[in-house]
Design the sequence.
């Protein structure tokens, strides 16, 4: 087990190197000169003096190979550079934005797990009932709707409509930003639990981010549960006279969870990808929206610095998911399997 | 993990959530938003006196410490209000420093925090005039090469630091050192070039603090320098800004305007509070009923900002493309305000396709074939003004109807095109109509394509990535390209010189080359008499519109803000697109 984990951790190094290097080189293929964009603000004719100044400051006139080597030298000391656009340290931007993405991601995953597994298990137990049919149709619809369309629809249904129809304040959810004006880190309890009015800002982006994944988790849980409900060990448990609820939760759900866990693990990548859209639609100041803005601005240090962390997190989470298999299914022996 | 343990965890988690949601709501200033029901009373007072108060370090209640701002005492005055705005489009503003900023979004904040030497008096929108602001008076010499500004005796920053003539001199030298987007304006000053190249003093600026005079010698005559001097680049900056350099904008910036920064900007929001040390506008009016706080919040795009406005999260927003009719029908708007900006096609004289003397009739045919009213109605819901020239109304000296080929006249267009063909003209390929993609211009281009097809001109859309569009044009890539221009300051030369003068070629001039035009503009700039200068500018404009037809005006911009008129009584936008925050008032 330990050797497996160490080898998997070591594999992260080339993964990160190739991913970031690819992105670095891709950046130079994209149209748009960052020096011009910085000097002109993106929508104006650039000032030549400023273009030269920007090129000098960031070494953008250097050969790509030189810039590439310099980038990795800095990155190995965890100096992610400074934003072309604002001059702010990327490490600082990362600190600000990563926690906001984490907060959103945590709530999206919680919603996905609780709602998705809940609906899936219930649908399986009550197969053929109206709840089962409704959830089948609902999950199919959710899977088919583009996530940003869903975001705009949620914004209209749960924020604009209640406001224009004088619903009570507590029922008016929020469409943008992470909290009320002036709210800072201090308005989060235990880092990710919103306090006071802040929950009204979290609900819509979290549910939107969770929506498609929740539907998939529900469908997979349902089919997986249907597979185990008639299994021999379930019949054995029933024949022992055990309580049905206990049988379903203890034996059924646990055994049905392996594929679901795989999906949730893979889904973390989807959550990171969806964050670009969701954070943009909801003006949520997280990694996704920052990366999207940075790509538009050709702000290479921000794009690379933030993506580096995303790749690292994704790799580590995948490893954690693999390890969790062993917990859910004691038959899985990671190190041995890997050795054979 | 046994079931009991899971249950216990679940209960604990639920209790934590409950405690959190019922917990400390004192961070929540939202209830003070004018759009929320909490603003109840007709006299503009918030229902909850605690909400909306700046909680941390209310800077008005005593001594001013480093990094803090002396402002109005919003805490002691009880109820307060704020305008919560989704003003910034796209990213948070890159720059908030007047010496560095190049965007209108950030200028909205800067203009609330700083006052310049001069201001525009637009009380008569058709005839705006430049008036002294921090300067109590000013005068040019006979040939408009030396301008002398006398600084108000009571001018001061919100931290009490006096604003003197020297303040302006060192602020302009600081701007030269920082070399922001608009730093090229310093080349208007004698010695400005040298300061931009190597730093140091600007030799043409002489400050006499005892006499309170700032004598500015220009590198070339400029009869409109009083308008330029009121632009953000020339705003006064306090001593501490000199030491901080480009980093100054990341802290609490001290200004001399009607509002002061409450705290350093974040990527999410910028909060301003009223500054009671403000000496007033050009009339001495201090607008004592102005709102206590203004919160600018970042929105990812115009549509998101508008949705947030509709959801009651702010009291104003920019109107995104396609929402003009909705905004007009349901909310208050500033669409009735004429903005000093033009929307037009520029034409590159060096283009084989449409440039040069041989293609003059083709250019005139194109201009006369375009149905500008249809564009305005179909694309902009009738909210813009159909252009009859390139320079918009509100620019001193501008006159309507200069363009002879801007009225939709298919017969005239057909005759001109036929004459061009008879003279041997031909288009080997469809005429490429260039524009920035994904910026809402496609319907405009399609209407123009249809208009041109009606007279036998085949045209096609040629979209460019928005990130590279202006780079492409600035490097001579324009053939016939769609562009927009907002005035930086209200002068005729800001259109004529910047868009068409040879000195601006391949900068903001996308391809107009004409010595007669340049000579007229140069002469106008050195003519102190405003009527005579206006006549010269108009002659120059006729050249570009009629004699050479190197631009095809489409329309003039209008105000672009929507506001909650259930709560807000006045929401004035100036012709430069800036909101006069001190005049915004709740009902």
Sequence:
């Amino acid at each position: 087990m330990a050797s497996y984990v160490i080898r998997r951790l070591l594999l992260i190094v080339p993964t990160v190197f190739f991913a970031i290097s690819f992105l670095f080189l891709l950046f130079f293929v994209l149209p748009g000169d960052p020096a011009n964009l910085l000097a002109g603000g993106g929508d104006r004719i650039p000032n030549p003096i400023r273009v030269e100044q920007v090129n000098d400051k960031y070494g953008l006139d250097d050969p790509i190979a030189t810039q590439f080597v310099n980038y990795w030298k800095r990155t190995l000391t965890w100096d992610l550079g400074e934003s072309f656009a604002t001059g702010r340290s990327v490490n600082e931007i990362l600190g600000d934005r990563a926690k906001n993405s984490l907060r959103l991601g945590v709530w999206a995953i919680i919603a996905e797990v609780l709602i998705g597994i809940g609906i899936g298990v219930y649908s399986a137990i009550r197969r053929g009932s109206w709840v089962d049919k409704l959830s089948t149709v609902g999950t199919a619809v959710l899977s088919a709707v583009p996530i940003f369309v869903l975001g705009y629809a949620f914004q209209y249904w749960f924020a604009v409509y209640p406001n224009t129809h004088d619903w009570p304040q507590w029922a008016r959810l929020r469409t943008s930003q992470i909290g009320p004006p002036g709210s800072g880190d201090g308005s989060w309890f235990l880092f990710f639990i919103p306090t006071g009015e802040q929950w009204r800002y979290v609900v819509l982006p979290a549910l939107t981010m969770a929506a498609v994944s929740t539907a998939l988790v529900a469908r997979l849980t349902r089919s997986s549960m249907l597979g185990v409900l008639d299994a021999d060990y379930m019949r054995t448990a029933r024949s022992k006279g055990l309580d049905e609820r206990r049988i379903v939760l203890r034996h059924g759900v646990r055994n049905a969870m392996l594929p679901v866990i795989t999906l949730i693990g893979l889904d973390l990548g989807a959550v990171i990808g969806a964050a670009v859209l969701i954070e943009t639609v909801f003006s949520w100041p997280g990694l996704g929206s920052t990366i999207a803005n940075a790509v538009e601005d050709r702000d290479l240090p921000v794009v690379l610095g933030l993506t580096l962390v995303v790749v690292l997190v994704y790799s580590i989470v995948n490893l954690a998911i693999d390890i969790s298999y062993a917990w859910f299914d004691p038959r899985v022996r990671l190190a041995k399997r890997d050795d054979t | 993990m046994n079931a009991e343990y899971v249950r216990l965890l679940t209960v604990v988690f639920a209790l934590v959530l409950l405690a959190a949601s019922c917990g400390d709501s004192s961070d929540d200033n939202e209830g003070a938003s004018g759009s929320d029901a909490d603003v109840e009373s007709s006299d503009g007072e918030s229902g909850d006196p605690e909400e909306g108060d700046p909680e941390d370090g209310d800077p008005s209640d005593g001594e001013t410490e480093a990094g803090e701002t002396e402002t109005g005492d919003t805490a002691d005055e009880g109820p307060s209000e704020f305008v919560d705005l989704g003003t910034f489009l796209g990213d948070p503003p890159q720059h908030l420093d007047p010496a560095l900023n190049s965007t209108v979004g950030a200028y909205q904040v800067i203009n609330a925090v700083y006052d310049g030497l001069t201001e525009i008096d637009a009380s008569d929108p058709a005839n705006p005039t430049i008036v002294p602001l921090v300067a109590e008076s000013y005068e040019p010499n006979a040939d408009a090469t030396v301008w002398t500004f006398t600084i108000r005796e009571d001018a001061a920053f919100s931290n009490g630091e006096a604003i003197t003539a020297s303040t302006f001199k060192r602020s302009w030298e600081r701007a030269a050192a920082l070399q922001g987007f608009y730093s090229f304006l310093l080349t208007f000053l004698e010695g400005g070039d040298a300061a931009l190249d190597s730093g140091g003093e600007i030799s043409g600026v002489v400050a006499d603090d005892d006499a309170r005079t700032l004598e500015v010698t220009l590198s070339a005559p400029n009869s409109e320098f009083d308008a330029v001097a009121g632009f953000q680049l020339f705003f006064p900056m306090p001593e501490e800004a000199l030491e901080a350099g480009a980093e100054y904008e990341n802290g609490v910036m001290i200004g001399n305007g009607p509002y002061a920064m409450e705290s350093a900007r974040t990527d999410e929001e910028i909060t301003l509070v009223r500054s009671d040390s403000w000496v007033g506008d050009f009339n001495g009016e201090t607008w004592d009923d102005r709102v206590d706080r203004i919160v600018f919040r970042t929105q990812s795009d115009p549509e998101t900002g508008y949705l947030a406005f509709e959801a009651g999260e702010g009291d104003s927003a920019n109107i995104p493309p396609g929402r003009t009719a909705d905004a007009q029908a349901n909310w208050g708007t500033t669409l009735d305000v004429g903005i000093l900006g033009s929307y037009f096609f520029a034409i590159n004289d060096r283009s084989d396709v449409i440039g040069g003397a041989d293609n003059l009739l083709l250019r005139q045919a194109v201009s006369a074939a375009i149905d500008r009213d249809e564009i305005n109605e179909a694309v902009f819901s009738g909210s813009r003004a159909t252009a009859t020239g390139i320079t918009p109304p509100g620019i001193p000296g501008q006159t309507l109807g200069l363009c002879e080929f801007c009225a939709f006249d298919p017969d005239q267009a057909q005759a001109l095109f036929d004459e061009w063909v008879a003279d041997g003209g031909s288009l080997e390929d469809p005429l490429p109509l260039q524009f920035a993609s994904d910026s809402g211009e496609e319907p405009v281009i399609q209407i123009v394509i249809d208009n041109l097809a009606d007279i036998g001109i085949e045209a096609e859309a040629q979209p460019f990535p928005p990130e590279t569009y202006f780079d492409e044009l600035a490097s001579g890539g324009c053939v016939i390209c769609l562009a927009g221009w907002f005035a930086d300051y209200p002068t005729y030369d800001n259109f004529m010189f910047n868009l068409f003068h040879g000195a601006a070629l391949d900068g903001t001039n996308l391809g107009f080359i004409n010595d007669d035009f340049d000579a007229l503009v140069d002469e106008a700039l050195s003519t102190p008499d405003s009527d005579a200068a206006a006549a010269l500018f108009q002659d120059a404009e006729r050249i570009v519109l009629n004699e050479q037809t190197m631009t095809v005006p489409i329309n003039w911009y209008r105000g672009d803000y929507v506001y909650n008129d259930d709560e807000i009584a006045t929401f004035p936008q100036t012709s430069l697109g800036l909101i006069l925050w001190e005049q915004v008032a709740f009902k």
